[in-house]
Amino acid sequence: MPYAQIEGWGMHLPSRIVPNESFVKMGLDTSDEWISSRTGIEERRLAGHNEATSDMAVKAAHRALRSAEAHASDVDLVIVATCTPDHIMPSTASLVQNRLGARRAGALDLNAACSGFVYALAMGAGQIEANRARRVLVVGADELSLHLDWRDRGTCVLFGDGAGAVLLRAAVEPGILKSTMGSDGSGADLLMIPGGGSRYASNGRNGSNNSGGRYLRMNGAQIFRWATQMMSRAAEEVIHDSGLKADQIDLFIPHQANLRIIESTARRLGLSEDRVFSNVGRYGNTSAASIPIALCEAIASGRVDEGDNLVLTSFGAGLSWAALALRWTVPIEGHPSRWTPIRQTFESRMAAVRSAMRRQQRRVRASLDERFRADGG
Ligand code: COA
Fold this sequence. Notes:
alpha/beta; Peroxisomal Thiolase, Chain A, domain 1; 2 domains; five-stranded mixed beta sheet; four-stranded mixed beta sheet; 13 strands; 21% strand; binds coenzyme A
């Protein structure tokens, strides 16, 4: 049975930085002191007007392919974990697959809200372990800022936008060790964006006028209590199932939602500060992108070495949670060849040309069919 290992990683953050002070300037009844002391968040990034989830996902994915020196055409499956897709359909993953030029790959979105990336990583690894794929690109990308009510101080200060990606490959040594996924739909109402789906349809079909339905709503205190328990429970489960002890965990990368949740989870697991990664201060909660962004930054800051045991744990709307233990197997130092970015640019252009040609071909074929029918064929 093949194993799955991470061989490439990449992230993208929008350039617009919004510090806590901006909310005060907007007239919101809050303060930098309140936000940073209750959440650890100091600033977050927000996507630009023309920046959709797939735009961020493609940039993160390109970087992941580049760090692995892999070709887009080597990828068998693209999974995009997101709860803020570009469209209800098609999947954001199909848009990413097309723009990367991953022409052999299947593509699907996975929605487990903030838990989505760890879910997707476990599913991608499963495809490799079942011998159904050799390379899987797993992206976590979200743009929750589109669903924030900027008058609601209890939610709008918490979230940011971004994307992160990893490339998984088949290998003879284990990388991904164990994973667990869970859900408790009895808490679905605690964190939701009610509109945009079939329950509160915008055409009013289900008796709804959809007012306010596009905004994220949350019971922060209940989520907080549940998350502090769930995060440590899920982490303990994968640590135990992997045959590891807590003191063998070199780095714990939890979902970046609130520093107090992260610290409480680390205390429950008995992990010292130097074995816990957090960047929630700079990005806020980026939903499905939070863990891959944290992983990339942990790698860039020298916190991950070959042979290290890592534990990723996430929680989110659903309620949903997931945890995954992995052994880091690839050298960090390897610098991609200087030709790689040039090759990637060439591949992206070729992908755009191929995509345009296919569209054109379909148009020509459709008009020929029409003429044929009109001629009584
Ligand atoms: N600025 C100032 N005051 C604020 C505020 C803000 N941005 N947001 C909430 N408050 C107020 C509340 O209105 C409340 O006021 P009241 O006592 O007059 O009613 C007071 O602060 C305390 O609210 P409380 O909810 O008890 O605060 P808290 O310490 O629990 O922190 C959260 C609130 C939202 C930061 C915290 O509950 C949390 O992080 N929950 C988890 C949310 C999360 O992770 N969601 C994403 C899941 S993926």
